[in-house]
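subagent[fold] <- orchestrator: predict structure for attached chain, return tokens only, no commentary.
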Amino acid sequence: MSASWPARIAGIVLMTALVWGMVVLSALPYRLPAADAGLLRLSWRAPARGEESCRTRTQEELDALQPHMQTPEVCERAVLGYDVSVEIDGTVEWSGRLEGRGARGDRPIAFLHEVALSPGRHEVTVSVTATAEGGTPPPPTSLEVPLTVEPARVYLVTVDPDSGRLRLAASENGA
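subagent[fold] -> orchestrator:
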């Protein structure tokens, strides 16, 4: 069965009004709320490292276990985490601890954090300190830079793959 002529005309009018409305609305200017600010984006991946210490079980420990659980060694893993701190003009804007993902904490760490910055000159300090429970942590790495922030510009802090140091790069198009 076909629709009646009045229903078809009503559908055409409605479709025309919707398309016209989308054309008009798409022509309106829109500015993102944070377009007047710059953005400091911290983004990197880090391996989840740990130290494993194993010892041989005593005969008393083996006797106390069920036969299917009697392994000759018992191992404990200390997970290595990272303490990250972001300071803008001497004020800590964010700090936190990053640890490996997964039940054992041995999956890589994927880190992404963004801080909005007002336009102008800022002193930016990003520090990363590796920590380990009972282990020996490697030396900390930090980035201390003066930064002149422009509106709608993204400043990316990543880890240089060759040196392992933090580095800063600015986007060309604000993305």
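orchestrator: received. Logging for downstream: The chain has a mean pLDDT of 84. The radius of gyration is 28 Å.
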